[in-house]
Amino acid sequence: MSKYLGEDDLILNTSSRIPVCLCIDTSASMRRVIDGTGRDTGETEFVDGKLWRIVEGGKNLLDNMNEGLEAFYKAINSNEQAKLSCELAVVTFDDEARVLEDFGTLDKKRPVRISETGDNTALGEGISLALKLLETRKREYRKNGVDYYQPWLVIFTDGDASDSVAEARQKIRSLEEEKKLTVFTFALSDDVNMKALGELSRRRPISLKTDKLEEFFEWLGKSVSTVSMSQVGEKLKLDTSGMDDWAEI
């Protein structure tokens, strides 16, 4: 796990911050092969609530997620203001939630890569940990007199939660009502209960085409860059004109 650079960075770099926390499902089903090139071994295994055929080779959903993350870093670092303003944290969740990367500006980070997976989908625990990280980081901004934009929480899952999301859902809704959080939720497979996912946030969930994750992260990086060049508190409308290329509405 990468730790953030600490309060010295908040003193030396006085740019207003955009805290973005990615909350990513790393249950075993994220290793599903999606490009059709894997070799079916004829064996099966019951994980993540389903019976899966064991396939060797091929590109899986986790590979696409890692390529998408690289695209996000590239998009942010191509903008001089964004790379000093955007702070990224990554939380993953499967059998448990963990901090893969704590907050810090992307100009001093290398793209994080996800490799671990577990059998379950502890979505509620993952969201709760992400919200805790965001709240902690906001306190550090205030302590050091650093302005910040409304935090972003971006949730990805390819299945239904194996734990309770009631507490996390209540916290998200409360923060949204107070205009203290922007939330995006994305379903990465047809196995996701969209009604349940839609209850997490006021913004409806989007079914994201799994082979278009890189395009989505490029859009996300450009959107964060746009915010970084605005005034704190200014209302912005994100450009979604290219959304049909990577999302199913």
TrEMBL record:
Superkingdom per UniProt: Bacteria
Protein name: VWA domain-containing protein
InterPro entries: Tellurite-R_TerY (IPR011392), VWF_A (IPR002035), vWFA_dom_sf (IPR036465)
Record-linked Pfam families: VWA
Segments forming domain VWFA: 19-227
SMART domains: VWA
Source organism of this protein record: Candidatus Borkfalkia faecipullorum
